[in-house]
Amino acid sequence: MRFINSLGRTRFALMALILACVGLAGLGIWHSSALQRTKHPIQKPSQNEMKAAARARLQRGVGSQVKLAAAGDSAELVRASVDSVAQFIFERSNLNMSVETKMRLAQAEEQALNGNGSRLNVDKLAESLTASVTTRLAALSDKEIERAANAFHENAEGRITMRASGKLGTLTRADFIRQAKAGREWGRRGDAAIKTALGSMIRQEVADRFDNLAASLPEQFGRVSQEGATPVQALLIAYSVATDDPLEGSQSDLRNQLVEQRMFERKSPPAQAEQRAWDKAFGVNGFIYSTPVDLFFDKTTLTQLLAEGGSK
Prior knowledge:
The protein has 13 helices and 2 strands; from the N terminus they run ααααααββααααααα. It has helices spanning 2-22, 47-65, 75-93, 99-113, 122-139, 142-151, 173-188, 192-216, 218-221, 224-227, 231-243, 251-265, 299-308; strands spanning 159-161, 170-172.
């Protein structure tokens, strides 16, 4: 009974921690960017204007930089599609897809497009990510928890922002480490409440991305809600969930946002020795939002996704 009561008192903080660890963020992430952070906006945009702006940002990002294959495309075109996805993810987060993984992804994608492989609906993708995250959380070492804490950029008060939007508040580094260790122990005990709560949150994040991409980029993602996502589409959505990357904007757009952000926060550019670590927008040391994504979005997660989207 004492453990259950403790879980109830600290569940919100723990869920905030886990969300931060896997880099989950709502679709409002870009509304907190430096370009839009004003106390007294001149005029609030209409819903139609906001949707049009979101479509334009997505088109400049994943819409134009990733080439999705279609049913009937040759194996060569499918491989080219996978290469464009791998390059897109690497340029934004420094996550590098191995040759072996690209080959397996291309094979799974071709099977799905031709009707010989499975697609992932919202529930299947959310279940896969939840299983990967809960398993990884329970296996974290003290050293990995320390590394996770160091991956987040502290704000001016020396606190870690739990989500890119700031919606879930902040924690001190010490609190982060303490709660991560508590979450790890709960995971090792197999507490079903953690998996249930986490699964519900992840499902909502996945569903939001399904809906947003289908509405904003109907040519590339218009059928995911009815038919499910192909392995390549599922990988992009999982990456977005894991890094807080809304898949919006070109590399030039992201660089301009960094400049605007630094001007707003009145920060100097990083020293020459640090510039290499700041060359990506997302992932570890991401200049827009930094997360310990490498601890969760790893080869095991990708293998699980490919297994879910494999042959029927």
